[in-house]
User: What shape does this take?
Amino acid sequence: MSTDTQPLDKPVPVSGLSIYDPVHLGIDERGYGVDIELIYRNILLGGEPGSGKSVALNNIVAHAAMCTDTRLWLFDGKQVELGLWKSVSDVFVGPDIDAGLQRLQELQRVMDWRYDELDRVRRRKVTQTDPVDVIVAVIDEIAYYSATIGSKEQQEKFVRLVRDLVARGRAAGVIVVAATQRPSADIIPTSLRDLFGFRCAFRCTTEASSDIILGHGWAKQGQSATHIAPEDRGIGLLLAEGGMPRRMKSAYLSDADIYALVDYAHQLRTTIAY
Ligand SMILES: Nc1ncnc2c1ncn2[C@@H]1O[C@H](COP(=O)(O)OP(=O)(O)O)[C@@H](O)[C@H]1O
Ligand SMILES: [Mg+2]
Assistant: This one.
């Protein structure tokens, strides 16, 4: 223990947050907190433009940024939705399909190395006590990379890589968080949708779109994101594996909140751990 009693010239950030802790998303209709265990899972958020996807994503990014056991890989076709977090991310990809593909391939390689290592030590997944950081890959507007920019081959390759990461990343400590404003079967095929353990449908214009996010049949059972009023931004139906959709409102971080969090996260990432 140090005998040095000199006061420190600046506060030492203490986080206490881990990506293995539940991530706060917002509150439900009864006012209870909605906290999800994202570790070993992935989350898909869908809904019409302006329905609240990026706001919700920012809550997840904020949690990840506050964790000392997590690295952020951000893919943001619009640049500004996640841009405030750039300085605390390991990777930031803007509207550039080549960079997007290169980074996803790198992430795939990291995942493969981790599986080789798990195999070597006869383990099935990374755990909190392993000296391995969890990588949270956040893709805001998947369709931007998979259907808007680049050639058809590049777009298909992007989807293939995302699918592989979603399918295999979990045990290797790779979490995919993806948003789409075009919930259509060509952007999110059922086989890809079903790989996401958490799905959140913000307001949708058709029951078909709502079902594409949540899963087939929910609209018929009355669980449709078309029932969310256009002015109810930030309200969504959150479905966790095997459960019922839960109506919730996501927490909102203002730009000022995010500046403060980024500052803090920055210190956290540059201070020697005690
Ligand atoms: N949970 C929320 N609380 C308050 N306002 C919200 C919330 N979610 C969204 N909004 C408002 O709606 C706007 C659009 O949300 P955004 O997340 O950018 O939509 P999307 O990414 O789905 O296009 C935000 O700029 C904000 O003004
Ligand atoms: Mg958005």
The pocket of magnesium ion (ligand 2) is lined by residues 53-54, 81, 140 (CB under 6 Å). The first helix runs from residue 53 to 65. The CA atoms of residues 62 and 261 lie 7 Å apart.
